[in-house]
From TrEMBL:
Lineage, opening ranks: Eukaryota, Viridiplantae, Streptophyta, Embryophyta, Tracheophyta
SUPFAM superfamilies reported for this sequence: P-loop containing nucleoside triphosphate hydrolases
PANTHER family on file: URIDINE KINASE
Stored Gene3D superfamilies: P-loop containing nucleotide triphosphate hydrolases
Organism: Erythroxylum novogranatense
Domain spans labelled Phosphoribulokinase/uridine kinase: 101-302
GO molecular function, one term: ATP binding
The name this protein goes by in its record: Phosphoribulokinase/uridine kinase domain-containing protein
Length: 306
């Protein structure tokens, strides 16, 4: 099969990868109307026009699963594209209480928190322009929110009660230092009841703050962000099934670790040697584990250095 490529410009674009079709790229246009279908036995994609009410990019392929890859020349372009992707889907829901829940993951230092907050900000801005005709009950400030996984850290007192407290504190941030059971319960309640109180995490104190985040019944888009949301193990797998869409921020681990190192030194005030030890002993192993879950994403977002 030929590799069919589309010229790229300054606009963001999606590329799809598969064993037979190594990669092709599709420009993401604000009014885009391109459909690409791969037909078994054919070497060329079939192109057709879509109406504006249909999906911007539609790929139908005989392979079991295709993973879309979003790339752009700046993170701002990526934020804009993701927001424009979310608003029509969330706004089209006939039930005003229905949530569109996105799982966002990636290794430490990938930029998850920044991406989530920037996309939410843009969704709020776009909502009155593109969604007012769908749902007049929702006011612009209340349509989207972020739910971080950080609030589901185990308390320090719980780490103290473990078999090896020193190791538990040294590895804080690893999957087993969280409570996925509580996160699952929180997301299930959000799905069934439409609103929920969730804990935040106080980095100054080093512990969760209960009921500090409120996801309202009027929030249409909820971005849940954290490291381990797509893991296959135990409760994490049940968590991943909650999401309507799964995004993975893809970044070179060395680049991510440089960002985390700077965070340890500048934000946490750790001496450089202590910060580097933390990277080698905890952050990098965690990042390598997270990278194994990229294959479960619906959309892979290529991070750009910032």
């Amino acid at each position: 099969m030929k590799v069919v490529s589309f010229p790229t410009s300054s606009k963001p674009y999606l590329s799809y990868s598969s064993p037979e079709l190594k990669r092709f790229q599709l420009p993401l246009l604000h009014q885009c109307s391109l459909s690409v279908s791969l037909v078994k036995g054919s070497e060329q994609p079939l192109l057709r026009r879509l109406t504006q009410k249909q999906s911007c990019i539609k790929v139908v392929c005989y392979q079991k699963k295709e993973v879309a890859i979003l790339e752009a020349r700046s993170m701002d372009e990526i934020y804009d594209t993701l927001a424009e992707r979310l608003v029509p889907t969330a706004a089209a829901a006939s039930n005003p209480e229905l949530k569109y829940i996105v799982g966002l993951t990636g290794p430490p230092g990938a930029g998850k928190s920044t991406l989530a907050s920037e996309v939410v900000k843009r969704v709020k801005k776009l909502w009155p322009q593109k969604a007012s005709s769908f749902d007049s009950q929702v006011t612009p400030p209340d349509v989207a929110t972020v739910l971080p996984m950080d609030g589901f850290h185990l308390y320090r007192s719980q780490l103290d009660s473990m078999e090896d407290p020193k190791e538990a504190h040294a590895r804080r941030g690893a999957p087993w230092t969280f409570s996925p059971q509580l996160l699952l319960k929180c997301l299930q309640k959000l799905r069934s009841e439409g609103s929920v109180y969730a804990p935040s995490f106080d980095h100054g104190v080093g512990d969760p703050v209960e009921d500090d985040i409120f996801v309202s019944i009027h929030h249409k888009v909820v971005i849940v962000e954290g490291n381990y949301l797509f893991l296959e193990d135990t409760v994490w797998k049940d968590i991943s099934l909650i999401f309507d869409e799964k995004w993975f921020i893809d970044v070179d681990i060395d680049t991510a670790m440089k960002r985390v190192l700077n965070r340890h030194i500048s934000a946490a005030g750790k001496p450089p040697n202590v910060a580097q030890w933390r990277i080698d002993y905890n952050d990098r192993p965690n990042a390598e584990l997270v990278m194994t879950s990229k294959k479960f994403a619906d959309l892979v977002i290529k991070s750009i250095d910032f």
